[in-house]
UniProtKB/TrEMBL annotation:
Residues 54-290 form the ABC transporter domain. This is Mitochondrial half-size ABC transporter. The keyword Membrane applies. Keywords: ATP-binding, Membrane, Nucleotide-binding, Transmembrane, Transmembrane helix. The keyword Nucleotide-binding applies. Signal peptide: none annotated. It comes from Hohenbuehelia grisea. It is found in: Membrane. The lineage of its organism: Eukaryota, Fungi, Dikarya, Basidiomycota, Agaricomycotina.
Length: 308
């Protein structure tokens, strides 16, 4: 049995690598941890990404045919821009990300979701998922070395590529402080990483995957200021030049998003930049005021955003 272990293990590695886009989802994503009953149409072509532009056109969706999760959502994420979703629990933020990842297909009369003009129902799921990188709230790591956990983003990644990704994800120095550097094992039988460190490993992995489209789910738990800064920098490097759709809980982290959509009860009730929304004095402005009064930290951002 022990003799079989080596070959089986490397077969497993190859299998995992080939199926990377699917396994990524199924194993790593709490956000998207839902059974998928979507099937490709016969002879469906692959998605062809030119710009990575995303468009939701009047999307309606219900999980069970009774409650309504989305009621007429329309928006565009132009090439390379960042769109953030905010709103109270149950407003429909995760549903938007799940639909874009095609965990459910829209039915007749429920609107359309397009990437570079192609209806995502008409293309293969594998090509769609290859084009999308996901950084979930809680990144799950394998019980393996840090190098493996990062390199998983790209089949056959070289050690130099792994290191470059870790640098861009603001994780290289931290990794070098571990006893075996990149060969340090993480997980149950290795060192334990903090939530912020795990997230930076997930960012490094996604940098290696190099997808044109990104889905980000910001961690709800508060991080200390220096970790927060490192993650923000890592995310900046990741979203650079890519179309991104993120769920934000801390409004201070999306001050520079190109567009913020405020969701309430499955509808977009306000949209604009941070500055525009604060000036509107509506739902977003009151959410912002609540977060500012709840913490000292965003208060500093208020002052800086007012100054701009
Ligand atoms: P949170 O910030 O708490 O994650 P959210 O804004 O992401 O909330 P969604 O998870 O998109 O909200 O939920 C939108 C609506 O759909 C809610 O009314 C929710 O109860 C419902 N819903 C979400 N997932 C399912 C599911 N798997 N089955 C049935 N209803 C669901």
């Amino acid at each position: 049995l022990a003799q079989l272990y080596g070959p089986l293990n490397s077969l497993g590695y190859i299998y995992r690598s080939i199926n990377q886009s699917l396994v990524d989802t199924e194993k790593l994503l709490k956000l998207l941890a839902e059974p998928s009953d979507v099937t490709d149409k016969p002879n469906a072509p692959d998605l062809i990404v030119t710009d990575g532009e995303i468009e939701f056109q009047d999307v309606h969706f219900s999980y069970d045919g009774r409650g309504t999760a989305l009621r007429g959502i329309s928006f565009k994420v132009p090439k390379g821009s960042s769109v953030a979703l905010v709103g109270e629990s149950g407003a429909g933020k995760s549903t938007i990300l799940r639909l874009l990842y095609r965990f459910y297909d829209l039915g007749e009369g429920e609107g359309r979701i397009l990437i570079d003009g192609q209806d995502i129902r008409d293309v293969t799921q594998s090509s769609l998922r290859k084009a999308i990188g996901v950084v979930p709230q809680d990144s799950v790591l394998f019980n393996a070395s840090i190098a493996y956990n990062i390199g998983y983003g790209k089949f056959g990644a070289s050690p130099d590529e792994v290191e470059a990704a870790a640098m861009s994800a603001q994780m290289h120095d931290r990794i070098m402080s571990f006893p075996d550097g990149y060969e340090t094992k993480v997980g149950e039988r290795g060192i334990r990483l903090s939530g912020g460190e795990k997230q930076r490993i997930a960012i490094a992995r996604t940098l290696l995957k190099n997808p044109p489209i990104l889905l980000l789910d910001e961690a709800t738990s508060a991080l200390d200021t220096s970790t927060e800064k490192d993650i923000q920098k890592a995310l900046q490097n990741l979203v650079q030049g890519r179309s991104s759709l993120s769920i934000a809980h801390r409004l201070s982290t999306i001050a520079s998003a190109d567009l913020i959509l405020v969701l309430q009860n499955g509808q977009v009730v306000e949209q604009g930049t941070h500055k525009e929304l604060v000036a509107q004095d509506g739902v977003f402005a009151s959410m912002w005021a609540d977060q500012v009064s709840a913490s000292e930290e965003p208060a500093a951002s208020v002052r800086s955003s007012v100054k701009k």
